[in-house]
Amino acid sequence: MKNEQYIMAIDEGTTSVRAILFNHQGKEIDRSQKEIKQVFPHPGWVEQDPNEIWNKTESVISDVLFKTETQPYKVRSIGISNQRETTVIWNKRTGKPIYNAIVWQSKQTNDIAKQIKQHGLADEIQQKTGLIIDSYFSATKIRWILDHVDGAQTLAETGDLLFGTIDTWLLWKLTAGKVHATDVTNASRTMLFNINKLEWDQDLLDVFNIPKKMLPKVEESSHVYGYTQNFTFMGVQIPISGIAGDQQASLFGQLALKPGMTKNTYGTGAFIMMNLGDKPKFSKLGLLTTIAYGISGKVYYAFEGSIFIAGSAVQWLKDELKLIENISGTANMAKTANDEPVFVVPAFTGLGAPYWNESVRGSILGITNHTGINEIVKATLESLAFQTKDVINTMTEETQVPLNSLVIDGGVSKNDFLMEFQADILNQAIERSATSESTALGAAFLAGLAVGFWKDVDEIDGIKQTGQTFEPQMSEIERKRLYHNWQLAVRTTETFEEKK
Ligand SMILES: Nc1ncnc2c1ncn2[C@@H]1O[C@H](COP(=O)(O)OP(=O)(O)O)[C@@H](O)[C@H]1O
Ligand SMILES: O=P(O)(O)OC[C@H](O)CO
Which residues bind ADP (predicted)? Predict the structure, then answer.
């Protein structure tokens, strides 16, 4: 429509960055997407080039505007959702990153996490930040860069270096260095942010010896952070008015806004989040407490079970093992596999929730000379559903509330085999989100609400679509047998330790 206005969502995930235009009905008009390279300098290390992230972001923005012949002034505002925890440090004066972005999955900071654990700080850190000490979070990554780049600590102390998660880096770039800020959800993934007091925690900054000067200002998720300054928008200054970590954005995009509502986003990793309402609860069973969103002067919390390897296991079948040519064919391959009890435990970068074992490595168990490519593909896909069940079981045990609904989104949710198996192994009807892009939609909702594009959440509720439901078909005996064997496979994998 001629006078239609749009919200642009920039979703910077681990695998790719995309810019998507949504209209007032929350309908995707078009998108542009580019892959982001991952660099693996050593086993277990995962890095990316922050300049590539920015250049590709800029390029998908221009591309989607060009493709849809959209004049920039028709973009009412921009929302950003991003892979969380991934850490960039750059020089304030030159704007140049001083090291690659250390990606959330990376294990190069395991030793720093270990040292912090040895200081007996686990309880304090959990009560303050909601997190479990792990190299997953930004604090250890900042420390590592300050330790490994010549002169970095001194420059950080003199205020010459800035830290940001990817949202902050993109915001800084979009505003041509005018705004250095983040939102409460991203701040809550650094292990430096007090989620009760909603401020950077000086005690934790001291523990990690990180100067406060390098940290961004923390705002609500739905908030006008600043305005675009670059040529991409041909001089039109568009507000950037929504920011959330991608998992929180997807919770918002699903409108899972009432306590107990749960979603699973199957992207590079898989992240299950249950809304806790406006009071934090702290887990005894290995779940994280995280900020779900901050809006209209209030902050809401969630339990999260973070699974490090999901879509990236499927990617591994293609890129490393070269067992498959295209990922979309994996559902049919799995459906034609035999019933051998093969298990893949994809602990490529340790195991996240509820195990939190940084040093375990992955395994393939139960193979015979009847095991072929299809069986390995099937076991890999099944491992994602088993890991999800591990987390859901923990959530129901922790909250003593049975799961009554689960919405699934993210790239891997396109896989019908996995969706059917997920319903079976949980013994629960699950919904595949009407859009696999609820992350981007959530960022768009947050951005649109801040500028009055949508009046309130009720208005958004009216445009939300329902997705396809998958019902469980598996017998109880089969379900129990499979899950029991999975647990055995995890235990066996955890006991393997390489002798040096
Ligand atoms: N049909 C499919 N079956 C299984 N995995 C898939 C399928 N399509 C995409 N994927 C996986 O989804 C992941 C990308 O999902 P996406 O939500 O875009 O991730 P991210 O936000 O982490 O970049 C990739 O790891 C890819 O392997
Ligand atoms: O890239 P994704 O979508 O799997 O998300 C990564 C998470 O935000 C990491 O915590």
Answer: 14, 18, 268, 311, 411, 415
Residues 157-178: pLDDT tens digits?
999 999 999 999 999 999 999 9
Domain boundaries, the chain: 6-247, 258-432+467-500
Q: Is the CB of 330 under 6 A from ligand 1?
A: yes
Q: Does position 1 have pLDDT exceeding 60, yes or no?
A: no
pLDDT on residue 2: 57
Q: Ligand 2 in contact with 85 (CB < 6 A)?
A: yes
pTM: 0.89
Residue 384 Cα to ligand 2 middle (Å): 15
Q: CATH code for 6-247?
A: 3.30.420.40
Confirm whether 6-247 and 258-432+467-500 share one CATH topology. Answer: yes
Mutate to test the pocket of ligand 2, among 10, 15, 35, 83 (most ligand atoms within 8 A of CB): 83
Look at residue 497 and tell me whether its pLDDT is greater than 80. Answer: no
Q: Distance (Å, rounded) from C-alpha 31 to C-alpha 7?
A: 12
DSSP state of 87: B
- Kind and range of the H or E element at 477? helix 476-495
Q: What residue type is 405 in one-letter code? A: S
CA-CA distances (angstroms) from residue 34 to 12, 46, 68, 92, 329?
Answer: 10, 19, 17, 27, 21
Binding residue per annotation — 479? no
Structure token pair of residue 220: 């609500």
Band of pLDDT at residue 121, cut at 50, 70 and 90 = confident
Measured between alpha carbons, how far is 120 from 111 in angstroms, rounded to an integer?
15
245 lines ligand 1 (CB under 6 A): no
* CB 13 less than 6 A from any atom of ligand 2: yes
What are 432's two structure tokens? 């595949």
CATH no. of 258-432+467-500: 3.30.420.40
Per-residue pLDDT of 238-281, as tens digits, reads 999 999 999 999 999 998 888 888 999 998 889 999 998 999 99
Instruction: Confirm or reject: Cβ of 305 under 6 Å from ligand 2.
Output: no
Q: What percent of the chain has pLDDT over 70?
A: 98
